[in-house]
Amino acid sequence: MFVIGNLIEAVARIIDIGLTLYMWVIIIRALISWVNPDPYNPIVQFLYKITEPVLYYVRYYMGRWIPPLRGIGIDISPIIVILIIVFLQSFLVRTLMQMALYFK
User: Fold this and answer.
1) How many domains does the chain have?
2) Apex CA 72: angle with CA 54 and CA 41, to 5°?
3) How many whole angstroms separate alpha carbon 68 and alpha carbon 43?
4) Average pLDDT over residues 82-99
5) Is residue 97 within 8 Å of residue 7, measured between CB atoms?
6) pTM summary value
7) Contact, 12 vs 103, CB < 8 A?
8) CB-facing half-sphere around the CA of 74: CA atoms within 13 A
9) In the structure, what pLDDT confidence band is assigned to residue 33 with cuts at 50, 70 and 90?
10) Domain residues for 32?
């Protein structure tokens, strides 16, 4: 049974690292958007390609409940995504870690 516990713990750690990395990518993209980045820069293109699907999804569904703040130039979708990541780290990763302890 300890093998299953170790496997679940490893998966939880990988998910935690992946969520943390994605959170930092979201933060970096938000910071870069404050300056006028070169859209042809490969790093900027990479950041947009990796974050835009999630941010677009949040903007689309958030727009149904919260009126858009585009008129004042504020995009709160990165904040929403970061809050979702923190929730997943607090709930999903902790639950998997507790399951891993149960199987050890």
Assistant:
1) 1
2) 50
3) 28
4) 96
5) no
6) 0.87
7) no
8) 8
9) confident
10) 2-103
